[in-house]
Each structure stands twice: as structure tokens, then as C-alpha cells.
């Protein structure tokens, strides 16, 4: 079998067009949705991602602000910037791009963001709403994965979904969203014994480990939907996922490429959440 490619760029364009209509409708009523992104320090990958977020805002006619703070910014200074954005009526949603430098406590940062403007969905209150099945803002990467599955016609209810990775930003919320859609969910971690036993049983396999090409075709059930969240830059400069695309695409039923898979959808769901935040601010 040769897998159908889930084209994250094409699906992104389609979803962005839907959200542009909603952004335009808000503008017609005098509200321009606004997003701010704070980045602390010089992580080169984060800079690329934040650049892509700002570009997507421009594409949808969303107002955006980009705050680049130096790596030696203190926690107090960062919290002061957050307080300003919480109070700024032009800004409907904002996020602090993770990771932040080690001398800053990311938990404190996430708690300081107003839950009403928390477009990343990382505030403990929004995490709680996701756990109880009534989410207000959902973390953009797993939210984007759910959209990719939906748009590709992958059935979720009653299927076995295996999520490899349990980070707060990808693995855990991913498992909760699949559970909400009635998948039977398994979460694997670095401590899992015999990982392949689980991955081979997956109808839907989502991989978010940051370990380049660790999932090979022999670990995949024929016909499975394989979603590769990983983005790794090899020594030769090439970008690869956590899945070995060549061997996996010979076995899987669907597969996402890297780049051009989950990454663009992450950005799309962020702008969607910003428009949602602006819509709610009118209600
Ligand atoms: P993370 O915080 O480093 O978490 C990685 C997770 O993978 C951990 O739970 C870890 O287990 C697990 N893991 C590591 N090695 C494993 C192994 N050999 N077998 C099974 N599980 C293993 O990473 P993250 O933030 O979730 O990101 C994961 C990847 O996705 C990275 O490549 C990142 O760049 C990418 N990413 C992409 C997007 C996008 O939009 N496309 C967004 C965010 C992240 P333990 O908990 O036991 O250590
Ligand atoms: N919302 N996202 C939010 N908050 C955070 O704190 N860390 C983090 C986060 N992660 C994130 O922004 N991830 C991300 C990953 C990939 C892309 C965008 C955002 C992306 O645009 N990927 C493209 C291009 C990859 C490249 O050229 O490096 C892709 O095609 O995959």
C-alpha cells in the first residue's frame, strides 16, 4: 500500500479561508482580531515558528504584535509584559512561545496569562476545561492534528489511537482530544516497554517525541493513519519528522509529511483561536 499524503499546507489554506470570512465579519462590525506573540531569547527554531505565525496573521488581515525580549529578561519583566497584554483591548489573544530561558518559571508565566486571552490553551484553567470535555481554547498543535484527521476522513470513534509522547503541549492534550472523539487511547513514553507492540496495534498513530525517524514502517499497522508531529533538523540541514517517511508511507493508509504536515496546521489553529477570542469579546 502507498499511503495517501495528508497535505497540511493545502488543508491549512482551506481552513484559513473559512476563518478569514469570520475575521472579515468581525471587521465589518468594527473589531479587528489581534494576536501578540512574546518570544524570549534566541532559539532559532522558535524564531522561524513565530515568523510563520505573524505571516499567517497578515494573510488573514489579523492585527499582530511581536515582542522579542532578550534572553536575560527577568521573570518580573516578562510578567509585566503579560499584564500589559492582558489589559490591552487591541489584543484578543497572545502567547509566550515556549521554551523560555531556564531562569524563568514557565508555570508562573502560563498562570499569569488571562484565561480569556490564552489562545495556546496552556493556562491550568483551560487545561482543566479540556480534561472535563468543555474546552475554551485548545492547544494549537493537537487541535491542528484533529482538523487534519477530520478533513482527511479518518474515522476516530472506536479506533485505537496511540500517542507517542506525553508533553503538556502536544502528547497529553492530543490524547484527551482523541478520547473526546471516542477513540480508545494509549499513551506511550520513553519508559514504555516494547513500544512497537503498541504502535503496531494503532489505527491512528500520533508521534511527538523529537527523536528523528524513530518510527519505521515495520512498527506500523497496514492502513493506519500516521501523524508525524516531530520536526528535527539533521546535521546535513534536512528537516525530518519522528517517523521514517519512506518506510512508513509504504505501509500506512495516510501519512503527514515533514515539513508541510502538522506545522502549517499549528499556525492555522492559532489564528483560528485568535478569531474565536475576538468573537467572544463581543458577546
Ligand atoms: P518533549 O516535551 O521533548 O516531549 C517528548 C516526549 O516524547 C516525552 O513525553 C518523552 O517521554 C517521549 N519520548 C522521547 N523519546 C521516546 C522514545 N524513544 N519512545 C517513546 N517516547 C519517547 O517534546 P514536544 O514538545 O512534545 O515535541 C515533540 C516533537 O514535536 C519535537 O520534534 C518538536 O519539535 C515537535 N513539535 C512540533 C510542532 C508542530 O507544530 N509541528 C509543535 C510542537 C512540537 P518521557 O516523558 O518519558 O520523557
Ligand atoms: N502555540 N506553539 C505554540 N506555543 C508554543 O509555546 N512551542 C510552542 C508552539 N510550537 C510551535 O510553534 N510549533 C511550530 C512548529 C512548526 C511550525 C510552526 C509552529 C511550522 O511552521 N512548520 C513548518 C515549517 C518548518 C520549518 O521550516 O522549520 C512545517 O512545514 O512544518
Architecture blueprint of SSEs:
Blueprint: E1 4-5, H1 8-28, E2 34-40, H2 44-60, E3 63-69, H3 75-87, E4 93-96, H4 106-112, H5 124-131, H6 140-152, E5 160-164, H7 171-180, E6 184-188, H8 195-199, E7 204-207, E8 225-228, E9 232-233, E10 239-240, H9 245-249, E11 254-255, H10 262-282
Parallel strand pairs: 1-11, 2-3, 2-4, 5-6, 5-7, 7-8, 8-11
Antiparallel strand pairs: 9-10
Helix pairs in contact: 1-10, 2-10, 6-7, 6-10
NADP nicotinamide-adenine-dinucleotide phosphate binds at residues 141, 164-167, 169-171, 188-192, 195, 208-211, 214, 229-232, 262-263, 266.
Give a quick set of tags describing it.
2 domains, single chain, three-stranded parallel beta sheet, Rossmann fold, 283 residues, globular, binds ligand L37
- Note the overall shape: globular
What is the CATH-assigned architecture of the largest domain?
Answer: 3-Layer(aba) Sandwich
Tally of individual domains: 2
Number of helices: 10
**CATH superfamily of the largest domain, please?**
NAD(P)-binding Rossmann-like Domain
Question: Unreliable stretches, pLDDT < 50, 5 or more residues?
Answer: none
Structural class: alpha/beta
The share of residues in extended strands comes to 15-25%
CATH topology of the largest domain: Rossmann fold
Q: Which kinds of small molecule does this entry bind, naming each only once?
A: NADP nicotinamide-adenine-dinucleotide phosphate, ligand L37
- Mean pLDDT figure: 97
Round the Cα radius of gyration to an integer and report it: 19 Å
What percentage of residues falls in helices of 4 or more residues? 40-55%
Instruction: Determine the oligomeric state from the structure.
Output: single chain
N-to-C terminal Cα separation, in Å? 50 Å
Strand order of the largest sheet: 1-11-8-7-5-6
CATH C-level label of the largest domain: Alpha Beta
Give the topology string: H per helix, E per strand: EHEHEHEHHHEHEHEEEEHEH
Q: Tell me about the biggest sheet?
A: 6 strands, parallel
Number of strands: 11
Amino acid at each position: 500500500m502507498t499511503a495517501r499524503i495528508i497535505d497540511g499546507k493545502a488543508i491549512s489554506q482551506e481552513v484559513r479561508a473559512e476563518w478569514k470570512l469570520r475575521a472579515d465579519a468581525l471587521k465589518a462590525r468594527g473589531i479587528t482580531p489581534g494576536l501578540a506573540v512574546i518570544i524570549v531569547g534566541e532559539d532559532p527554531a522558535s524564531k522561524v515558528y513565530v515568523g510563520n505565525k505573524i505571516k499567517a496573521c497578515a494573510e488573514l488581515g489579523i492585527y499582530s504584535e511581536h515582542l522579542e525580549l532578550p534572553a536575560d529578561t527577568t521573570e518580573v519583566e516578562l510578567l509585566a509584559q503579560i499584564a500589559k497584554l492582558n489589559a490591552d483591548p487591541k489584543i484578543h489573544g497572545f502567547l509566550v512561545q515556549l521554551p523560555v530561558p531556564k531562569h524563568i518559571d514557565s508555570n508562573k508565566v502560563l498562570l499569569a496569562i488571562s484565561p480569556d486571552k490564552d489562545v495556546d490553551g496552556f493556562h491550568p484553567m483551560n487545561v482543566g476545561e479540556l480534561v472535563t470535555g468543555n474546552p475554551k481554547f485548545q492547544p494549537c498543535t493537537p487541535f491542528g492534528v484533529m482538523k487534519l484527521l477530520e478533513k482527511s476522513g479518518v474515522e476516530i470513534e472506536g479506533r485505537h489511537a496511540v500517542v507517542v509522547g506525553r508533553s503538556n503541549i502536544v502528547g497529553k492534550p492530543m490524547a484527551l482530544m482523541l478520547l473526546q472523539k471516542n477513540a480508545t487511547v494509549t499513551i506511550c513514553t520513553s519508559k514504555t516497554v516494547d513500544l512497537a507492540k503498541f504502535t503496531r496495534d494503532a489505527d491512528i498513530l500520533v508521534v511527538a517525541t523529537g527523536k528523528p525517524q524513530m518510527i519505521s514502517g515495520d512498527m506500523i499497522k497496514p492502513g493506519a493513519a500516521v501523524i508525524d508531529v516531530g520536526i528535527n533538523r539533521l546535521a546535513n540541514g534536512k528537516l525530518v519528522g519522528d517517523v521514517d517517511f519512506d518506510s512508513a508511507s509504504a505501509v500506512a493508509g495516510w501519512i503527514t509529511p515533514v515539513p508541510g504536515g502538522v506545522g502549517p496546521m499549528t499556525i492555522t489553529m492559532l489564528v483560528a483561536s485568535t478569531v474565536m477570542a475576538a468573537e467572544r469579546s463581543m458577546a
